[in-house]
Amino acid sequence: MARNPRILVVTPEITYLPEGMGNLANRMSARAGGLADVSASLVAALFDLGADVHVALPHYRRMFNIDIGRLISDELRVYQGKLPQDRIHLAEDRIFYYRDAVYGNYGAENPRLSLAFQREVINNIIPTVRPDLIHCNDWMTGLIPAHARRLGIPCLFTVHNIHTVEVTLAEAEDRGIDAAEFWEYLYYVRMPGSYEQARSQVPVDLLTSGIFAAHFINTVSPTFLTEVVEGRHDFVPAHVRAELTQKFAAGCAAGILNAPDASFGPRTDRWLQYHYGPEDHVEAKRRHKCEFQRASGLEVDPDAPLFLWPSRLDPVQKGCQLLAHILYDIVHEYWDERLQVAFVSNGPYQDVFWSIVEQHQLYGRVALCEFGEQISRDGYAASDFVLMPSRFEPCGLPQMIGPLYGSLPIAHDTGGLHDTVTPLDVTAGTGNGFRFETYDPGGLRWAIDEAMGFFRAPAAVRQREVARVMTESALRFHHAVTARAYIDLYEQMLHRPLVRGT
Predict the structure, then answer these.
(1) Which stretches of 89-237 are DSSP H helices?
(2) Cβ atoms 434, 452 nearer than 8 A
(3) If we measure between CA atoms, which residue out of 96, 33, 37 comes closest to residue 61?
(4) What angle do the packed helices 281-296 and 373-382 form, to 10 degrees?
(5) For 10-59, what is each residue's pLDDT tens digit?
(6) How many CB atoms neighbour CB 302 within 10 A?
(7) 130 Rama sector, left if φ>0, alpha if ψ -120 to 50, beta otherwise
(8) Fewest C-beta atoms under 10 Å: which of 102, 293, 314, 421?
(9) 78: Cβ contacts below 8 Å, ≥ 6 apart
(10) One-character DSSP codes across 385-429
(11) Rounded Cα distance, 244 and 238, in Å
(12) Which residue would you say has higher pLDDT here, 81 or 228?
């Protein structure tokens, strides 16, 4: 009888792995962003389904809290990057061992990390696993789809962010990758005349190579894929857009939304002091609001409308300058209604907001807190609204997390925000937030005014609508939905079920 198709998920970061996958599964946590959460949930869903799933990771010994001195023991012995009888395959290179972050802070470090990881996957892990399908994630894995194409192995490449790195074939080969075997499947920054010319003179674009060589690609929201193809974002390089467009036109591209980590949810969130659900959210959120206000320095008032800023303070993407432009005006206009804004975030624009608070003496009405897991979770549970006015958003997670906790999103109509935030209609009992189309301070101000209009609604109406949004969000925004979409895509690429007998 034919075996289940073997899937190899190649990712530079992950938050957890199912315990049954190996004796170190509960130690595997290296996170820089949403890619780690998606990878973890997908591997877990595949494993729980009974699929023959394997995962390739850099061996971050320090982040995994592995005692290097014990690696020679039988329990932790490593052979060619594979833990015996496990489905966890660790890429071995000293460049990973002592790191405390997935990515580096200076230009030359990240290409070296990427090439070391890909060398081990190409030379050791793929020959060991012998997968039927390879799933690669982002630019750190951009050479592997070309190698998979040479081997005739179907390959899915997921574009999480429009970020890339360029390397030469010479650099790849100096790191131990025999790029001559698959050089014609890579994407070069300009047309190479021959392998010899390309080797040292024409750099390879890793993200675009992954898109170009993969058999199928996906972005992390349907609308962001459409926006890139239609040329609606000037920050997307022309060659990235061109290759995504080719895949899209060929029917080999899809958008699959990410989902929040399974630990998010007010019934079970271990960070919360008071647990609650749709039916009893009112009193619990009032109690959380008071606790959060004390911790953040806001005036303690359970009836004050509280707006939470949960994303990094990055003016290039996240739209914090829009809020800076109107912050004083909204606090002043809604002063009698005691409107409050809390930032639980770091980033370059933090100093701008401190200046506004100091200049206008907004202490008690505006709080700026460094990001921390505890205060972030408390902020979701305490707040009434989540601010997400991003200029662009490949997916976004806070606009999905907020509604789980009864905090309605205020979002710009773009990318993953378009796919997850729909206008609230109290009369029809539909929608989950407030979405504005014009990306400027006036657009955000309009959405905040709409949110305040909802906040003034009778308590029974607000309670009913928030409970509905919480219930619907719990059914929609979770990893099982995301994993099912990836599984369907795998089965489409393999032309057979992922698990024997299904």
Answers:
(1) 94-97, 109-120, 126-129, 144-151, 169-174, 195-201, 206-213, 222-229
(2) no
(3) 96
(4) 130
(5) 999 888 888 778 766 666 787 777 788 888 888 888 888 888 999 999 99
(6) 14
(7) left
(8) 314
(9) 59, 71, 90, 92
(10) EEEE--S--SS-SHHHHHHHTT-EEEEESSHHHHHH--B-BTTTT
(11) 10
(12) 228
Measured over the CA atoms of residue 378, residue 379, residue 384 and residue 385, the dihedral's sign is: negative
C-alpha angle 386-390-391 in degrees, rounded to nearest 5: 160
**For the whole prediction, is pTM greater than 0.85?**
yes
Residue 289 to residue 264: CA distance in whole angstroms: 18
Could you tell me the two tokens for 407? 């905090």
Facing residues of 368 across strands?
343
**Number of CB atoms found within 10 A of residue 437's CB:** 11
Structure tokens at 440: 């400027």
User: What is each CA distance from 361 to 124, 146, 323, 340, in whole angstroms?
Assistant: 61, 58, 17, 13
Hey, is 478 helix, strand or coil?
coil
Give a three-class secondary structure readout of 256-319. Answer: CCCCCCCCCCCCCCCCCCCCCCHHHHHHHHHHHHHHHHHHHCCCCCCCCCEEEECCCCCCCCCC
Residue 79: alpha-carbon gap to chain centroid: 32
| Helix, strand, coil tally for the chain in percent (to 5) | 45, 15, 40
Supply the DSSP symbol for 92: P
Counting residues of the chain whose pLDDT is more than 90, the rounded percentage is: 74
Residues 418 and 422: their CA atoms lie apart, in Å, by 7
Q: Give the mean model confidence (pLDDT) for residues 156-167.
A: 92
Amino acid code (one letter) for 373: E
Residues 152, 216: contact at Cβ < 8 Å? no
Handedness of CA 444, 450, 451, 456 (dihedral sign): positive
